[in-house]
Amino acid sequence: MNSITRFPIARAMTALTVIVLGLGTTQAAENDVKALHEALTLINQEQQAVFQQFQMIQQLRRANAEPVLPPVGGGPPGNYDDVVAAKKGQAEREEDYARELRDLYRRHRDLEQEKRPLMESLRRLRQEAPRRSGG
After folding, report:
1. How far apart (Å, rounded) are the C-alpha atoms in residues 130 and 82?
2. pLDDT digits over 4-50, tens only?
3. pTM over 0.85, yes/no
4. Separation CA 77–CA 69 (nearest Å)
5. Per-residue pLDDT tens for 113-134?
6. Domain spans in the chain, listed from the N-terminal domain onward
7. CA 75 to chain centre
């Protein structure tokens, strides 16, 4: 993912904040606060979805970690090739799950970084609001 598509919401909202602050109108600032809240809500929802996916993959990974055992009982012993193939499949799934968990963790972290400038803009607007209304 390149830097242009990585944090589009944060860049757009930060640019909007700068423009609105330049105008200095209370209505524009209120609209900007609303837009920042909406952007933060969208990012929080995406973070929640990513976290839920992360938890599901963790569960799959735990289930996959169960040892591959031949059947126990009075039946014939399992085929060696089948056991080897099952263990190989288990190892491949483990690698896939680990890779997916890393990707989801990275995406969650990127979303958190995307939120930072929005939260900073919101904080700045809230600090400047009393100056506008009282000044």
Report:
1. 72
2. 455 667 666 666 666 655 555 677 778 888 999 999 999 999 999 99
3. no
4. 11
5. 999 999 999 999 888 876 665 5
6. 3-134
7. 48
